[in-house]
Amino acid sequence: MTSNAIESVLQETRKFPPPAEFTTQAHISSVEQYEEMWNRAKDDPAGFWGEISQNLDWFQPWQKVLEGQMPETKWFVGGKLNVSHNCLDRHLTTWRKNKAAIVWEGEPGDTRTLTYQELHREVCKFANVLKKLGVVSGDRVTLYMPMIPELAIAMLACTRIGATHSIIFGGFSSDAVADRNNDAQAKLIVTADGGWRRGKEVTLKPAVDESLAKSPSVEKVVVVKRTGSDVTMVPDRDYWWHDLMEGTSADCPAAELDSEHPLFILYTSGSTGKPKGVLHTTGGYLLGAMMTTKWVFDLKDEDTYWCTADIGWVTGHSYVVYGPLANGATSIMYEGAPNWPHEGRFWEIIEKYRVNIFYTAPTAIRAFIKWGDQWPNKYDLSSLRLLGSVGEPINPEAWMWYHRVIGGERCPIVDTWWQTETGGIMVSPLPGITATKPGSCTRPLPGVVIDIVTDKGESLGPNQGGLLVIKQPWPSMLRTLYGDHQRFKDVYFGKLDGMYFAGDGARRDEDGYCWVMGRVDDVLNVAGHRLSTMEVESTLVSHPAVAESAVVGFPHELKGEGICCFVTLKTGAGDESLKKELINHVRKLIGAVATPDQIRFTNSLPKTRSGKIMRRLLRDIAAGRESVGDTTTLEDYNILAKLRDEE
Ligand code: PRX
Prior knowledge:
This protein is an alpha/beta fold. Among the domains are: 1-12 and 440-491 and 503-520, Roll (Luciferase, domain 3), CATH 2.30.38; 113-258, Rossmann fold; 523-645, GMP Synthetase, Chain A, domain 3 (2-Layer Sandwich), CATH 3.30.300. Strand 1 and strand 2 (72-77) form a beta hairpin. Helix 10 crosses helix 11 (314-326). The protein is globular. The two termini are 38 Å apart. Residues 268, 314-315, 390-393, 415-420, 441, 502-504, 516, 519, 610 line the site of adenosine-5'-monophosphate-propyl ester.
C-alpha cells in the first residue's frame, strides 16, 4: 500500500440480493443487461449516449454527441430542445395530461395537486410574467423560496424562456442571497413572504429587502403570498405573484435552446472561500437527470415517488423536479419539517399518498432512529417498494434500520453517490439486479467510469482506500464555475491530470463495490495510519446507545493526530463508564490504532443546512482553537457555543 492510501478498517459482510419479484418487473433486470450497457457506454460513449438521447424530445437533432475532452466538453452539439417542453408539453399529448405531476403538502396540512396540464398552464403564464418584467433568454433569475409549488413553476418557467435560474435555499441569510445575486448578476428574484417550518414562519421577503441594498443588479422582485405575514412592497420593484398572474395568457411557446444553453447555477460551499457557482447546461443535464431517475428508482407510471430533499439543493433539482417530470411521474413535494407536528409526519405522508418510492438522507434516517420505532410503526408503510439514500455515507447500522423498520425487509435500498457537480447519480445499486451491502453505494451506472487512485493517479487494488475519480466525461457534468473557469479547472481537474477528482476518499472491495469513506479533507492521520472518519463513526453508531457521531483529529504529541469523537446518544446523558465502553467498542471492532483518545457527549452536532456534519468546525473545537473560515452554511450557530461549553 502506498503511503498516502487510506486504510480501511470497516468490516461489513452482510449482503442483500434483490427480491425476485422486484427483478422481474425492473427496467434493468439482468446483470448481463447492465454490463452490456456499461461496456458499450465506456467503449463507445457517442453511440451509447446518442441512442439514449432519443428519450428526449429535440426540436432540432444534434450533429455530434460529444465534443472535446475533460474538462472542456460539449454534449449533443447543434441540438435544440427545451427542458419545460420535455417535462410538460410532451406529456400533454398522452394519457398523462391529467395525471398528477406534483402532489404538494404544506406543513400546516394544506394540499395542492397539479396535473401535467395544470402545471403546464401555470408555467406558461409565469413564463409570460417573466417576459413582461423584462427577463430574456440568458438572464439570471434568483429563486429564494419555500418548498411550495410556485418554486417548481418558477424553475420551469425560467427554462421555458431560456433564463438561467439560481436557487438559494430558503434558510440562507440576506448576505448569502446578496453574494449569490452579485456573483450571478441576477436580474430578478422570485421569493415569498415566508414559509412554514416546525410550526413557525420562516420569513424570506425581509432578507430579500436587505440583500437588495447590496446587490444592485436585481431590478424586480416577485413575491408569492404563502404565510400572509406583513411585508413591505416597494412600488415599481416588488410585485405580488397572484397580481401578475391574473389575466396573463397561458400561451407561451417553449424557446428552442441550444443543448449547451446554461440551465441553472447552483452555489455549493467550498471548505474555504466564496461559494462555487456550479453551472449545468440543458441537454446533457436533463438526459442525466431523466435516465438516472428511471434506472435507479426503477420509476414506473403508476408509482408515487417522494424525494424529501429541499429544492434548494441539487437533489431537489434533479430528483424532485427535473428527473421525475421528464419521466412523466408523480412527484410528492412537502414543505416542512419531518417532526412537525409530530415525529411521524413523514410516515403519515407515505400512508396518506401510498408512496411507493422514498428517497431521503442519512442524517434524517439517524434522526428517525433517535425518535424511535414507535413512529413509523404507527403507520401503514406497505405501499413502499424502494428506498433511497443520498448526501453522506450511510452507516451500516442506519442502513439496517432503514431496511428493517421502513422497508419491512422487502424494499431494496439504493445508496446513491453523486454531487452537485455531477448533476445526477453516478454510483448506485440498480434495484432489480444489485445485491446490496449496507454502507456501499456499489457500482457505477452506465456511462460512469470511476477509479480509486493514489494522489499520483495510480490505480489502487481491492480494499485499498484512495481518491475517487471519474475518468470519462458524462452528459450531466458541470461545465464551469460561473464566472471563474480557471477555478473550475483548478478545483476539479488540477490535482490529477485528465481526471475529475470529486474530493471523496473511497475503496473498492473484492466484488468491485465502492465504499465512500468521506471527504479526503476529513481523513485522520494517527501514528502514520490514514483512517476514514466515517468508518470510526459507523463503528460508534453500531453501539446500541449511540444515535450519531462525528469523529475528528486533533494535534497529539505522540501520534501526530489523536481521535476525538463527538457522540449524541439515543437517550439520556453519557457518563464515564459509557465513555470507556465506547472506547473499548471501537478498539474491539477496529483495532488499537483507532482507539479514541476522547469521547465527548453532546446533544447535537454542527451541520450544514443540507445535513452534512461540519467536521472542520469540530476540529477547531477539539484542538481548542477559535473557528475561522466560512460558517455561513451552518444550520445552528448556537451549537458551536454549546459544544464549547460542554467540554
Ligand atoms: O462526500 C460526498 C457526499 O456528498 C458530497 C456531495 O455533496 P453535494 O454536492 O451537496 O450533493 C449532495 C447530493 C448528491 C459527496 O462528495 N455524498 C453524497 N452522496 C453520498 C455521499 N457520500 C457517501 N455516500 C453517498 N451516497
